[in-house]
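The instructor's notes for this session suggest beginning with a concrete chain rather than abstract definitions. Hand out the sequence below and ask the class to guess, before any prediction is shown, which regions might be ordered.
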Amino acid sequence: MIHSAPLILPVSAPVLREGAMVVRHGRIAALGQRREIVDAWPGEEETRWDGTIVAGLVNAHTHLQYTHMAEVGRRRYASFEEWSTAFDDVYSGSSIDWAASARDGARQVLRSGTTSAADVVTDLVAATALRDTGLGGLPYLETLGDTDAGWAASGRERFVALLEQAGLPMGISPHAPYTLDTGTLRDLARLARSRGLRLHIHLAEGEHEREYTVSGTGPLARMVRELEFDFAILREGGTGLTPAAFLDELGVLGPECHIAHGVHLDADDRALLRARGTAVALCPRSNRTVGMDGPDVAALLAEGNPVAVGTDSLSSAPSLDLLEDVAVLRDLAVRQGYRAADLDRRLVEAATLGGARALGIPGGLGPGGPADFAVFDIAGGREPYRALIEEGAGRCVATITSGKMAWDSRTSTTVGC
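After discussion, reveal the predicted structure:
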C-alpha cells in the first residue's frame, strides 16, 4: 500500500512536500517524493490523503482507566491536595468498569492521532486496553501506599504476581515519592532493572513535594499521615534532598525511566535528569486543573532536557488530545522567554520522538520503521510544524498503527468498537 499526501512530516527527517511512503507488513518500506515512489513501486495500491501525514504522536503519560472519571477533571482546584481528595472520593466510591473505561480512553486517544501511549494502570483489568484497541505503547503497573514492612511481608510478592498475571509486556510505575516508603521505592527500581522493565513515576508535580522530601513536613506530609502511611521519611524528618535527588539516591532515575509533570524542577534538578538521561513528560492542562501554572518549558528546552508530552487522564484534563497540550506548552514557552526559531519543531519532536524515547520504542517515520502515523485535515503551509500545533487538535481524520487502520473518520470507527 502506498500512502501519499501534499505534505508529510516524518519528524525524524525533513518535511516532504508531495510525498509518499510504501507500507508493507506493518513497516515502512520506502519514503520519498510521490512521483519517485509511484514509479519505483508500480502496481501498488495508493491511498491519496488530503492534508498532512504526521509521524504518530506518543502520549507519554496517561491513565486511560480513569476516562469515566471525567467529572473530576471538569472542575478547577486550588491545589493538588484538593484535587487529590476529590479524586479519591470518586475512585473509592464508584462502581466504574475500569476495563471498559480504559478501552474508551484508548479509542479517544487514537481519534486524536496518537499511535502509542504510556498508560499507567492501577487496576490490572485495565491493562489490555492498548492491545484491545490497536494502540501501541506500554502499560505501566502502578503501586502506591506500601510501607517497607508491608512490602517485605506481602506487597512485593503480590506486585510481582500481578506483573506475571498480566500476561503481556508491562513497565513499573511507583506512584510518587510521597506515596511509597523509601525502601519500597529502592526495591521497585531494582526489580524493574533486574527484569529489564521500564520505569515511570510522578515527580515534582505539586508545589509541596519538595517540602515533603526535604523535611517531611507540609500539606503532603499531613495528607500521608491522615492516610496512616507510616513512612520512614516522616519518622526521620525528611531526607534533606529535593524530590529528584531523593529518587536518584534510591536508584530510580536513569535512561529507562521517565517522569511525569516535572513542574517544580530547579536548575540542579534539571541538570540531574539530563545527566541520568531521564525524560520529562509534560502535562500542562492537567497542571492547570490542579491549580498550577505549568512547567518551565523554556528552561527544559534551552538546557537540552529530553522532553515528552502527556495528557494525563480525564480525571484531571479536559480531553485526551495530545496536540491541545502541545499548544499550551507553546504558549508557556513563549511567555517564559523562549525566542529560538526552532520552538514549533522541537515541541512536535517532543510529542513524537520524545515520547518514543521515553517509552523505549521507535519514533518518527523512516524506511524500516513501524508504520505508525496519523492524517490531519490541515494544509501545513509554509510553517508545517506551527500549523500542526495551532490547527491540528480535533482534526485527525485517520490513525494507522503498524500499518493497520485504527481510526478512520470516514467510517467513524476504531478497532474494538
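Then share the key points. The chain has two domains: 2-55+367-414, 57-359. The CA atoms of residues 344 and 386 lie 5 Å apart.
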